[in-house]
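Follow-up to my post from last week.
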Amino acid sequence: MVKMRWWFAIIVCFAATQLFADDELALHLQPALEAITPDGLLAHIKVLASDEFEGRAPGTKGEELSVKYISDQFKKIGLKPGNPDGTYTQEVPLAGIKSEPRMSFITGDKMIDLKYPDDFVASSARLQPEIKIDKSDVVFVGYGVVAPEYGWDDYKDVDVHGKTILMLIGDPAVPDPKDPSKLDDKMFKGKAMTYYGRWTYKYEIAAQKGAAAAIIIHETEPAAYPWQVVRSSWGKENFELDNPNKNMDAVSARSWITVDIAKKLLTDSGQDFDALRKSAITKAFRPVALNAKANIDIKQQIRSFKSHNVIGKLDGDDPKLRDEYVIYTAHWDHLGRHPELQGDQIFNGAIDNASGVASVIQLATAFTKLNPPPKRSVLFMDTTAEEAGLLGAKYYVEHPLYPLEKTLAEINIDGVNPWGKTQDLEDLTDRNSSLDDLLGEAAARQGRVMKPSTEPEKGGFYRVDSFEFAKAGVPVLHLARGIDVIGKPPEYGKQKRDEFVAKHYHQPSDEVDPGWDLSGAVQDVQLLFEVGYQVANGDKFPEWKAGSEFKAKRENKSQKNLANDRLRPHRN
Ligand SMILES: [Zn+2]
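User reply:
Got it. Predicted complex:
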């Protein structure tokens, strides 16, 4: 009996200390969590998404206003300049390219003259005034993928140097041998999209193969967005990093055509689209030379300018850990203004991504309410040119202001949930690293359930800034909206999300809506605050999970770093 009581007392004591510790932590975090509010978010969104900001295109008045607004907010909150040079900005050399493309195909004695931008879009990353491709042989290369881990090579021994390659969008849609109505889970992650399915990959492999031009056939379902999105994303000024080599290593012409044009081209050259597409889903596929030639002429107006990532810093409290970092990111840029449009010409980008920038500002505010601050430093960065292909984030990881080996985590926000509190949330980074575990635990504390991405086929992860950090080995976290909206019918959340993608995503109508309920956004931002706080104050580095394609990069990097440290002479 006595023994039991002792045990009991110890357990009670232990539980009480734990409770006390939890309570104390809750009390410590409370002012920070309370600083994140629907009104706080909305106030920033309203400014950034106002018509005055003209859709926040890089290198325009919209950039000037955005960069100034965000830096001013960081200053006002009490963040230090995030750039060691004493400013709140990192210059990103960009080139804005306006293309006037013309494209036609010759098949036998027939000619298909394509209408821009109804039938096609075309541009070049090369910083040259004109790209001219004359009567180039057209070769259908299936999905255009080379994936050694799946024993997959769409090119085989066919040399496509100087040719125009025509490709399907998405990952090879390999059916499950046991149930052909489904995709094979062992090939290209089944229904989920791998990087091989992204258009960025397709143009990269085209460049490696020395192709003159790469044409992607647009299909709404595998692309995950309608032609309208391709048209408005590419049919305007596009941006590239202004690298010293003027991007001469990129494929000279990159294009998208509609599936209707592709069908016509194939029929006119004696082929059948459906049959070709079917042949492309096997390893045995071989490129098909079409009886067709492509003419592409792109006149380019190029302006080089400096765009900016905006960055603020909160110093860590621990002198030993202060040189380690957690970084929050959100892109500030959007699609700008399209003067050729009738009616509303401004792509306000309220959700995409004024809402993310507002979240980062609110997170910064929250962190400054902590007394003492976390042990490690926290960086808050709003990136430029995400819409143009994650360029601001890419530039940052190529020219980091703080060592990436000492950057414990990147937490990104792109588009908050404006439809109310949810019971669930989705993990776009899909349990890739221990950060996802922290997110799941924090969600459970809010009484919510973390689910894997419900739409892995859309490849959302490859379309956010986190991807650039992941490629560089930094563990990343990106939470996507839940759809189980509290107090609404079960279909409500999904309906709202689908409606947003169909009607407002990358359209001028992505505007502030008086019907929004940002209480759900607050829930999510508070979660991201908790995860970031835990990492900034924790006793270990987050780690990639076994099997993650980014793990090796991180480990090589830290080994290299150790070696460098050993070689570096000590100066102090
Ligand atoms: Zn976005």
